[in-house]
Amino acid sequence: MNELALALYASESGTHLVDAPRGVAWAGHLQRFDERSARARLAEKGFRFLGRSDPGFPPLLGAIHDPPAGLFFRGGAEPELLARPAVAVVGARACSGYGATVARGLGRDLAAAGLVVVSGLARGVDAEAHRGALEAGGITVAVLGCGIDRDYPAAHAELARRIAETGLVVSEYAPGVEPAPWRFPARNRIVAGLAAATIVVEARERSGALITADLALEEGREVFAVPGEITSSLSAGTNALLKLGASPLTAATDVLASFGIEPEPPAPRHELLEHLPATADELTRRTGLPAPEIARTLVDLELAGLVSAADGLYRASP
Amino acid sequence: MLARAVTHALVGLDARRVEVEAHVQSGLPSFRIVGLADRACQEARERVRSGIAAAELEFPEGRVTVNLAPAELRKEGSGFDLPIALALLAASRQVPRDRLQGHAAVGELALDGRLRRVGGVLAVAEAARRHGLERILCPRDSAQEATLAGIEPVPVRHLADAVAYLRGEHQPEPVPPPARGETPALADLADVRGQERARRALEIAAAGGHNLLLGGPPGTGKTMLARRLPGILPPLDEEAALEVTRIHSVAGLLPTDQPLLEHPPFRAPHHSASTAAIVGGGPGIRPGEASLAHRGVLLLDELAEFARPSLEALRQPLEDGYVSVARAAGRAVFPARFQLVGTMNLCPCGARGDPLVECTCSAQRLARYRDKLSRALLDRFDLVLAVPRARAEELAAPRAEPSAAVRARVVAARERLRAGAPERVPEADALLSNAVERLPLSGRGRARVARVAGTIAALAAADSVLPEHVAEALAYRAPQELAA
Fold first, then answer.
1. What CATH superfamily classification does B189-412 receive?
2. How confident is the prediction for chain B on average, in pLDDT?
3. Mutate which of A234, A293, A299 to disrupt the B interface (most B C-beta within 10 Å)?
4. Which pairing describes strands B297-300 and B266-267: parallel, antiparallel, or unpaired?
5. Which is more confident, A153 or A87?
6. Pairing of strands B339-344, B297-300
7. Whole-angstrom Cα distance, residue A171 to residue A155?
8. Residue B484's pLDDT is what?
9. Using the beta-carbon criterion (under 8 Å), do B363 and A93 form an inter-chain contact?
10. A·B CB contacts under 8 A
11. pLDDT tens-digit readout, A110-155
């Protein structure tokens, strides 16, 4: 069976196909299919395709029950890097400052420890995880629910370009396929499939991130959930996961331990960190230090990557 | 019989010489005003007729024509009433013609012959002085304003006074020079509890003349803080005060009791204001809020609610310090060097930054809200600050420093900055470069941080910009949510 032909056929017809279907449409497609010109068209744009049966195909993804016929790749890295241990970081698009800080910190720490950070390039948690990994100079992979030549969401075109510089942008859909709501759950199975562990940072009760977590559980992969405030609806999904038995994640070391990576000994903490999360004014009041000095210290800590700020609230990075 | 009076018509902030010619011929009784007079100016006919009667003088019989020369210049407003009446009276030999020619005249007539003040007397008086006239006949209420132009005003309460003066039967009362040195009662910083960071940012903004953006949930005191900025600004110097007064005079906003505006003006247009209301223009080419805030503070409360064209139109004054308004009726340049203060919620529902309420905005809605402010406009804010909700403990904080104490530091820092911006030491430069690498900070962002660091050093009375000054300046940069 020709996997490129199948991948293109599935993209064109908008069907979810694991194996070649029966029927005249497919037979006709196969007859017209010219592998050399199809590959040449991909190469022209610098894209690559790896079939499911290719030895370089990510083994973890090949092992799920409905693997894609193959993956399209865009980016500087070799597809083989997907065989390296990978972690998926997923969560809400409209995340809170807390979710953004956690996602970014996790992306940074996991990538710094040598893990590949996989996510979906969506707004919010996904983008923060990608950015965190890039900040640490690590490898990150974005899985799209549309063709790899599409910039979706458009605001993340620049982020996608930076990801592709050192990592990969991948999709099971052929270049040119438009984003559509029903493709995102299918994309999530690839996110979960590529990773040995999936981390849900923030999710509402009915969230795409929970679909990813479900798919990961179905495949027997490890699922971590970041605990949140019980009163926040943005944490309802993650807290429900914890109730169902997902491993709680309070630091990147929790994940690293499951990969057998020894965490580095913790550095001595700055005393200001003990008061976080807090606003600058609360720190002024709690420490008795003048506002200009608090501002200076917080910037120093921010530059050291120990603190991040969102909407006026400073948090210690995980 | 022909007679002339001289007045000046406003074109933006400038006044151009206008000769009011009155011609009385024999013929059927009629009264016409020609020379591109607008509606208010045409209506002068009725006011002049009644005014002359009220002054117990005679309205000339026959065919009366008044020409406002040059004829191609549009004349607007009611300030022509007095010169028209005087020209008519001179043409009918009721006042001496030669004596009238040495005077400028401006003012609106009431039906009972009294004079009402009009806008732009300062500009008119200045133009009169430039044209070599020594005296200006103006309403009593505007006389102090006219003295600012360095010309001798002849205060007039009633048309009859003006006639008596021109006939040499009445000496004008002396005009006291405008009272000076009084600070208007402004909102005081002592009323703000807690908010140490915002207070500090306000002080830096005042010292360096930086534009300031305050973001935060509703009810955290953003507007309250912004309204306290004028109170910590130093008073205007002579030249600036005259500039500001001229603009406010043209807009007709000058208070009678205080003809010279010595304190930085504060303007806070509502977010429904039109582009013309903000940058100036409209059919009459009026100064807009941006010009009324010249040398002062322009507060745009709920910045994101303003129409985008209005905000974009502010980019020219923010860059060049003036607004140029071109209309079919002419072109005018208004100075508009103001300090911009914006406030906004962090998201459309307003809950962001509030620990007690949860934001319900979707990602798209949030992105759209923040997209309303163009990068180009955000780049003009040197200081961007999140003002989160104060918790109860903060509101119990003691009363803080009053504005006067802060103003003293601001004045001292401005003195130092005037002597020259302090240089950065190499370590401070290194910190700045490191920040550009580590934080989302653009080239423009870097320049902004450098400027703010200079102001902080001046506030600290340091000879050079040290790393600690740069570090503090970095705390007031645009946060990633607004920058990325």
1. P-loop containing nucleotide triphosphate hydrolases (3.40.50.300)
2. 87
3. A299
4. parallel
5. A87
6. parallel
7. 19
8. 39
9. yes
10. 99
11. 999 989 999 999 999 999 999 999 988 889 999 999 999 988 888 8
Cis peptide before A67 (omega within 30 of 0): no
Closest Cα of chain B to A290: distance in Å?
A: 8
Q: Which domain holds residue A103?
A: 80-258
Nearest CB to B358; choose among A233, A279, A285: A233
Subunit contact B353:A312, Cβ cutoff 8 A:
yes
Could you tell me if B87 and B5 are in contact, meaning their C-beta atoms sit under 8 angstroms apart?
yes
Angle at CA B449, nearest 5°, toward B444 and B452? 125
Among the three residues A215, A232, A258, which one is the final residue of a domain in this structure? A258
What CATH number corresponds to the domain at position A297?
1.10.10.10
Residue A260 CB partners (closer than 8 Å, separation 6+): none
Q: Does B353 contact A93 at a Cβ distance shorter than 8 Å? A: no
**Cβ A311–B438 below 8 Å, yes or no?**
no
Asked whether residue A148 falls in the same domain as residue A253, the answer is: yes
Nearest beta carbon to residue B194 from set A234, A281, A303: A281
Note every long-range contact of B96-99, with CB atoms under 8 Å and residues 24 or more positions apart, other chains counting: B96/B166, B96/B167, B97/B3, B97/B4, B99/B166, B99/B168
**Beta strands, E only, B401-467:** 423-424, 464-465
Contact B391 A282 (CB under 8 A): yes
A 10 A CB-CB count for B227 gives 18
Give the model confidence (pLDDT) of B399-447 as tens digits: 788 888 999 999 999 999 988 878 888 888 888 888 888 777 777 788 8
Residues A138 and A182 in one domain: yes
Cα gap B137→B159, rounded to integer Å? 10
Pick the residue from chain B with its C-alpha nearest to A137.
B438
In CATH terms, the fold of domain B2-166 is Ribosomal Protein S5; domain 2 (3.30.230)
The residues, ordered by sequence, that sit 6+ positions from A181 with a Cβ below 8 Å of its Cβ are none
Q: How far apart (Å, rounded) are the C-alpha atoms in residues B183 and B235?
A: 8
* Binding-face residues of B in 276-335 toward A, CB within 8 A: none
Phi, psi at residue B465, to the nearest 5°? -85, 115
- Output the pLDDT for position B328: 64
CB A281 to CB B390 under 8 A?
A: yes
Q: Are residues A244 and A276 part of one domain?
A: no
For residues A253 and A302, state if they share a domain. Answer: no
Helix (H, G, I), strand (E, B) or coil at B325: strand
The DSSP secondary structure of B108-138, one letter per residue, reads EEPTTSBEE--TTHHHHHHHHHHTT--EEEE
Q: Is B375 on the interface with A (CB under 8 A)?
A: no
Q: Are residues A100 and A239 in the same domain?
A: yes
